[in-house]
């Protein structure tokens, strides 16, 4: 804020190191500035020797006292203490003070202790009840006049004062009167700041501490009286800038109007909007200068001037990159959503910066515009984007542990090199070791493969599964192209297309022999998935909905050749109720069309039950049971869930009810639905919530566990 100019009233404000001068709105009254200069050297009127010669000499003949001997100190003190001869003797002498503390000898310096000095009037204050020996002054606070300004503004001035007031924070207690006076002075300045921020630049604020002897009550009263005065308004809005395209670009985005109150927050927001709008409309090098506001106290107005340097209008040209690079300019071009020759737009530059961060390959990355050459025929200049890279560590080791009824305990670990084959060619090695599942696999994934957000993936894995429904030894090769959401870059529309081939040896119940012989299946499958997501978070949504559809045509070679299609549709919705409660619901329906149940490998059938399905039941335990009591699986399923999620800080509590069933038929029958209810705990982390759910089945049947526990990362849906 520049020093105000004094014109018997005007005050001038400019953006300074405290651009907050207007935001904090601390008034600066005009003062004349005195120039500092070296005073001139003056020659003496009379030289020193001439001056000394002019003084007459003095001796004992001139004043007898000069020749008299000096009296002793004791005689001088007795003479001074003696009353004048003409003063009558007092009727009664005032006895000397008898303060024991004053008469006591001073302690040695090495034994002295610091004691607080308390005025007699402050020491007389009553101690706080329940705190013997601790003297505290109780006080009251009285604020008058602020409501006058409060009626003229949308801001709650009284609430702002109460939230920041030193007197209010003291809760009516202080160590002494000096402390109350200090708080009173601080709150007087606070009122000045609050009123100035809302356009009252010349308020009259009076503060007074009314002591007990002057008031009717026993406690001192800290009084603040406010006379807001006139609310200042803009008299002129002046913008000094060159021409823009479109012509009203700066004024339209500034938004300040003559006659409007001069509000600190609105001025700062208006200037910030100009600073944002210019780069969004082709001016990458625009600069908003220091504002100048001249206040006229007599008129109650302010003249506002804002200088703006627009700089040249630019168009996107090429890329340049420096630093420790994860990839070159060619891949940066793939990540950008603009083409060479387009008008510069800072929003597209911000989008590129986010895409670079989302790769996970940088510890730091910056994108800055650079002037790129001579102007074109339309007056625009080419703008080169300089990408400053600082590649981070490319390797990651991760691990998870989970538990679910029917699946047992499973520990998973992975090693990832995110850029082993640049650009963004990642290799992932993963392994799982569990009580009922073991696996080993490797994946190659190239993100942003030739196109922004497109991922190509190849995977190979081998695993062993030992569940109630079946046991299997499986080898799998898969390829996939997709557009997926990530926690850093959630997308509204996602898709995936994939193919896979499997060779698997699985056990299945044979009704003829009443045994479970192992059979070999060769499966070739394709998949197409489409998702639509409007939620506000990928891992912990609180609003919006999701819709996902999946179609998988498959061919199986076992004792014969069979082809069929698997399809699934799932929808979920989330609604926040109050600050801490979220209601969530999910529905899932699946079907297999084109083959008999016995011709489908057990691992490719549909099952219900478990932590991601119907809680309260073991994994894959619902549906038709074989004579040996184990699940058979089905060709259709239906599931639904309702949850109430309550969160306090990093912890949450969930109550839920799930329902579902699997059927042999190809369409859901919606009979014999099973229900599970339970509660869960959540611990929220920066990578998603850690989930612990405990559920029980309703109408529990023989062989079903009373309690089922599920532990994993992420919400159930």
From TrEMBL:
Matches recorded under Pfam families: Omp85
Give compartment(s).
Answer: Membrane
What GO terms fall under cellular component here?
Answer: outer membrane
Region annotated Disordered sits at 39-69
Main localization is: membrane
* Domain of life per record: Bacteria
Q: Which UniProt keywords apply?
A: Membrane, Signal, Transmembrane, Transmembrane beta strand
Query: Start and end of every Bacterial surface antigen (D15) domain?
Result: 429-717
Cite the InterPro entries for this sequence: Bac_surfAg_D15, D15-like, TAT_signal
Signal peptide location: 1-35
Report what the protein is called. Outer membrane protein assembly factor
Species per Swiss-Prot/TrEMBL record = Novosphingobium arvoryzae
